[in-house]
């Protein structure tokens, strides 16, 4: 991509060229491409080549061309000068000028002018030293010019800096690190530059450089786009490292290079523990050359083999023969160091089976780099290995990140074949060289293993030499003060205790005096009565608040213990208790949390037939399955959500639940001043199936503390609905770090009618989104109908009174209610007071109204009845337990053939397009997308639905190459555990609790950390 210079800079360059050459400014054009300046000179007759070059070279000697361009433009390393006749499309001549060799170019041009021959002189010649030759000497400026020759045509400017690198093991030899900065007006893909620059740098065979860091940056931006590390280890060092392990191909390459000067070619083969080397003439077209000289061959080969000391190779048989002969002319037998040193006898494969990490690394690198030439050119795929307990973590990095398909199956199969003792699982990671975090990961368990603790990705250093810098020095100790003696410490403690007692006495004295219940015995000065009034008011205010808190605490305690001691034979409760009050008061754990305002996991209750559940007494059917652990029942947010949705300035989306969930989410963002770490999305399976509180607590037990989670599940949500929610409804600053998409195959079915999305698409809220950002979604937008009744309804709440004082009063009431231990149980307190006061003379005037609560089994609740609302985390906890016997007495049993959710089941269409949009969006915004296929019952998974589920799983597995996408299949987790379900395809709060715990310890999910 060519860079057009600003008008003032371009004019100055054109004028400078015009003055130097005498060509009119209309005949001069300049362009900057990378580090190259292109100058086109045209006239009625094509300008003479050598005369024009002579004039320009003299001008370049007297002028720093960098001063003629913008300060933000990269430095110019070379100038390309073209000459052409006006009206022509192609130049007649072109000459490249290296600005660091202007004197040599001038000599060449002067010789051409003196010759004045008709035969054109080839430019360059021996006078010009190539940038490659200068770059091999290690000069940073020369390296930049050398790289610029190969990258400037891509519009990429190069700048090189040399910085010292930390010495290894306190070595006195200081290695340098090469920093290559690539600047362009666009963001080049790493695969375009990484391997190209790596090959060019390694081709130079630089001495004194450990590695190079390639930094790509878009011009005008402050932060780099990406970084890549290039290993500058010389090829001969890499070859010797592999030859040391007995790699035959590496040994052959080293010996070939050594014998090449003697015009001897060789071939090698390994049989058992003997290396066979066949030497023949390197150039013998007539096939008459004699066999290589034995003395020369042995003097060249034997010292090399002894210095290499290859592992598990005891001896070498060296043969000398003619090209055409089948029998060797001479043979010699050489013993190698492995025959004398026992530790060299064991092969790399046998060492790897014992768990030797260097041997495993060599074998894996050999496996992943089958092309030795390519490894020597680019550095190849490097392997880092860490063993943690019974897991082997293997990192594979390269200038271009290896793909999961390229390495994962090879590595896991190889480790499985090794059968290393104590290793029960393998975790493979892939990243770009120089990064710390992997771009993808893959895990396989070799044996059945328990996963009580999640497996966090270990921290691999960017290069193995820097591992020591990440470790803590075990010998470091705290610095103590030697001047402190035992006597001084005792004196300090006594003085501190004395001062503390005096301060406490003074504080109590002042409190008693300010209450005006006490006065000083000898008061000489009258205090200001105004100050006395303010002080006493504050004292009595504090006492009043303290009395209120004590009364609230005692009432909550009395109510909790009164309910706990209710008689067993009470079948009907005569009280106006709400479902929320029942749940909070009848659970033993919630007796504590009701006034301490703590959240936690509710432990299993005692299997007593007299215990309460969320709906009343546990009947015989429920007693056989027992009580199950679940997350705590939090305060419902139904009324708050309705009020917030009504006052929202956002038009309605024609979906009440979406409007209320969005209002709750906006309030949460305004309260916490940041977006949640994890956002749960999906249909009713997500709304009921993942408990944010249980998930956060399980993550906290795995060292992921303070993880903020919100459940944004929407009944009937499909892939299109989730796509609209994430990409259009929510603002970029409102998006989380991790999206947990909990759903199933029917959300991706393109054959059924998407009623939820169609409703949202015709809503005023969706139309407003399209008007604000018309480029986000390409769709036919009709004109707004001012008479639309839905729009009138959505705008109606805006006319309501939004008095700020009333809003503040409501907020204060809600806040105090949340802190109170007795407010949530106010109905129970009223009933208890009525029972205690009913025998007083005036009690007959206000006889209590008895409201009977009909006790029903959870699994028998009518699906058409009103369900409890979501809590403030967006989660809908249902205590209903699925009982097939009673459930199908009230609901028809529909097979997959007649299920509208699976009608004309197909995975190609709008839902698929929405899913692809989500993948690209999360990738571009660095958001992790986790899709969980939620559990289903065996009653639901009939043969038809099972077939569709298998198609859906195969469909999702095709997307696992996306680095930020993780797929977890839980559909067959509990096919017969009906107590975890509220109906055949939805979890209840007990199933949501178990799913949340399982996701928290899943080793393949990388949860955010703080």
Could you outline the blueprint of secondary structure elements for this entry?
Blueprint (H helix, E strand, L loop, with lengths): L6 H15 L6 E6 L2 E8 L5 H14 L15 E8 L7 E6 L3 H14 L15 H5 L4 H12 L5 E8 L11 E9 L5 H15 L4 E10 L7 E6 L3 H10 L3 H12 L4 E8 L2 E8 L12 H15 L6 E6 L9 E6 L12 H6 L3 H12 L3 H7 L3 E7 L2 E8 L5 H15 L6 E8 L7 E6 L21 H4 L15 H29 L14 H36 L14 H8 L1 H9 L15 E2 L2 E2 L2 H4 L14 H10 L8 H17 L5 E4 L2 H6 L2 H9 L8 E3 L7 H11 L8 E6 L11 H7 L2 H9 L16 H7 L8 H16 L6 H12 L46 H7 L19 H15 L3 E6 L9 H15 L7 E5 L11 E3 L2 E2 L1 H12 L10
Parallel strand pairs: 2-3, 6-7, 10-11, 14-15, 19-20, 19-21, 21-22, 22-23
Antiparallel strand pairs: 1-2, 3-4, 5-6, 7-8, 9-10, 11-12, 13-14, 15-16, 17-18, 24-25
Helix pairs in contact: 2-3, 7-8, 8-9, 16-18, 17-18, 20-21, 23-33, 24-31
């Amino acid at each position: 991509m060519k860079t057009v210079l600003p008008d003032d800079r371009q004019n100055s360059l054109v004028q400078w060229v015009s003055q130097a050459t005498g060509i009119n400014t209309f005949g001069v054009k300049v362009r900057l491409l990378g580090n190259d300046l292109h100058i086109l000179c045209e006239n009625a007759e094509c300008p003479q080549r050598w005369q024009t070059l002579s004039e320009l070279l003299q001008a370049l000697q007297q002028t720093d061309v960098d001063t003629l361009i913008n300060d933000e433009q990269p430095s110019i390393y070379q100038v390309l000068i073209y000459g052409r006749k006006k009206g022509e499309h192609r130049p007649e001549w072109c000459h490249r000028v290296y600005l660091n060799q202007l004197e040599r170019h001038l000599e060449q041009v002067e010789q051409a002018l003196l010759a004045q021959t008709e035969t054109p002189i080839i430019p360059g010649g021996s006078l010009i030293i190539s940038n490659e030759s200068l770059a091999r000497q290690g000069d940073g400026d020369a390296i930049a010019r050398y790289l610029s020759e190969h990258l400037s045509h891509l519009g990429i400017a190069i700048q090189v800096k040399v910085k010292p690198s930390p010495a290894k093991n306190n070595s006195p030899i200081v290695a340098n690190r090469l920093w290559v900065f690539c600047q362009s007006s666009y963001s080049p893909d790493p695969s375009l530059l990484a391997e190209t620059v790596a090959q060019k740098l390694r081709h130079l065979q630089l001495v004194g450089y450990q590695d190079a860091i390639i930094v790509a940056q878009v011009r005008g931006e402050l932060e780099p786009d990406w970084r890549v590390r290039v290993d500058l280890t010389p090829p001969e060092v890499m070859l010797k490292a592999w030859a040391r392990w007995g790699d035959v191909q590496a040994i052959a390459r080293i010996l070939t290079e050594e014998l090449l000067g003697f015009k001897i070619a060789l071939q090698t083969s390994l049989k058992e523990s003997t290396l066979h080397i066949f030497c023949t003439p390197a150039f013998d077209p007539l096939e008459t050359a004699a066999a290589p000289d034995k003395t020369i061959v042995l003097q060249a080969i034997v010292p090399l083999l002894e210095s290499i000391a290859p592992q598990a190779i005891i001896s070498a048989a060296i043969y000398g023969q003619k090209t055409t002969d089948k029998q060797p002319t001479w043979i010699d037998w050489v013993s190698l160091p492995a025959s004398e040193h026992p530790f060299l006898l064991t092969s790399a494969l046998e060492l790897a089976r014992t768990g030797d990490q260097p041997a495993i690394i060599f074998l894996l690198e050999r496996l992943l780099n089958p092309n030795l030439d390519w490894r020597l050119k680019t550095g190849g795929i490097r392997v880092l290995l860490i063993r943690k307990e019974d897991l082997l973590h293997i990192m594979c990095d390269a200038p271009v990140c290896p793909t999961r398909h390229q390495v994962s199956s090879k590595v896991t199969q190889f480790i499985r074949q090794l059968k290393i003792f104590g290793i029960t699982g393998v975790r493979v990671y892939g990243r770009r060289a120089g990064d710390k975090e992997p771009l993808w990961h893959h895990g396989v368990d070799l044996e059945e293993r328990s996963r009580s603790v999640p497996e966090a990705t270990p921290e691999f250093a960017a290069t193995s030499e820097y591992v020591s810098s990440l470790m803590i020095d075990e010998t470091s100790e705290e610095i103590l003060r030697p001047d402190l003696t035992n006597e001084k410490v005792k004196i300090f403690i006594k003085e501190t205790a004395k001062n503390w007692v005096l301060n406490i006495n003074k504080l109590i004295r002042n409190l008693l005096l300010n209450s005006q219940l006490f006065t000083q015995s000898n008061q000489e000065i009258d205090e200001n009565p105004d100050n006395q009034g303010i002080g006493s008011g504050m004292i009595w205010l504090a006492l009043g608040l303290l009395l209120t808190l004590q009364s609230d605490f005692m009432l909550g305690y009395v109510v909790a213990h009164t309910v706990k001691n209710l008689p067993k034979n009470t079948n009907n409760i005569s009280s106006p208790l709400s479902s929320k009050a029942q749940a909070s008061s009848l659970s033993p754990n919630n007796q504590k949390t009701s006034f301490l305002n703590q959240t936690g996991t509710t432990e299993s209750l005692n299997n007593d037939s007299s215990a309460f559940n969320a709906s009343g007494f546990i009947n015989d059917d429920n007693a056989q399955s027992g009580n199950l652990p679940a997350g705590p029942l939090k305060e419902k947010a139904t009324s708050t959500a309705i009020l917030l949705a009504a006052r929202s300035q956002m038009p309605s989306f024609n979906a009440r639940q979406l409007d209320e969930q969005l209002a709750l989410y906006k309030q949460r963002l305004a309260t916490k001043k940041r977006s949640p770490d994890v956002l749960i999305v999906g249909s009713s399976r997500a709304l009921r199936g993942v408990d944010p509180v249980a998930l956060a607590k399980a993550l906290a037990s795995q060292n992921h503390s303070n993880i903020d989670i919100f459940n944004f599940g929407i009944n009937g949500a499909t892939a299109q609905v989730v796509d609209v929610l994430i990409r259009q409804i929510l603002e970029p600053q409102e998006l989380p770090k991790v999206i947990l998409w909990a759903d199933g195959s029917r959300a991706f079915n393109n054959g059924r009618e998407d009623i939820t999305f169609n409703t949202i698409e015709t809503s005023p809220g969706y139309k407003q989104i399209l008007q604000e950002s018309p480029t986000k979604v390409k769709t036919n937008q009709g004109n707004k109908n001012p008479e639309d009744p839905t729009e009138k309804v959505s705008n109606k709440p805006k006319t309501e009174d939004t008095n700020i004082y009333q809003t503040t009063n409501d907020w204060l009431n809600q806040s105090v209610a949340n802190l109170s231990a007795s407010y949530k149980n106010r109905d129970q307190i009223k009933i208890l007071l009525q029972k205690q006061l009913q025998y007083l003379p005036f009690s007959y005037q206000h006889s209590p109204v008895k409201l009977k609560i009909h006790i029903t089994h959870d699994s028998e609740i009518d699906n058409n009845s009103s369900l409890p609302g979501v809590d403030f985390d967006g989660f809908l906890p249902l205590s209903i337990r699925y009982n097939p016997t009673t459930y199908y007495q009230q609901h028809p049993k529909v097979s997959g053939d007649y299920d509208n959710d699976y009608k004309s089941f197909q995975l190609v269409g709008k839902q698929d397009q929405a899913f692809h949009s989500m993948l690209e969006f999360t990738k571009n915004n660095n958001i992790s997308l986790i899709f969980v296929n939620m559990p289903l019952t065996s009653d639901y998974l009939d043969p038809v639905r099972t077939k569709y589920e298998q198609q859906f799983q195969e469909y999702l597995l095709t997307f696992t190459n996306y680095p930020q996408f993780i797929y977890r299949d839980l559909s067959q987790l509990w096919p017969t555990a009906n107590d975890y379900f509220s109906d055949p395809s939805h979890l209840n709060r007990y199933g949501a609790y178990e799913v949340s715990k399982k996701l928290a310890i899943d080793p393949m999910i990388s949860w955010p950390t703080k």
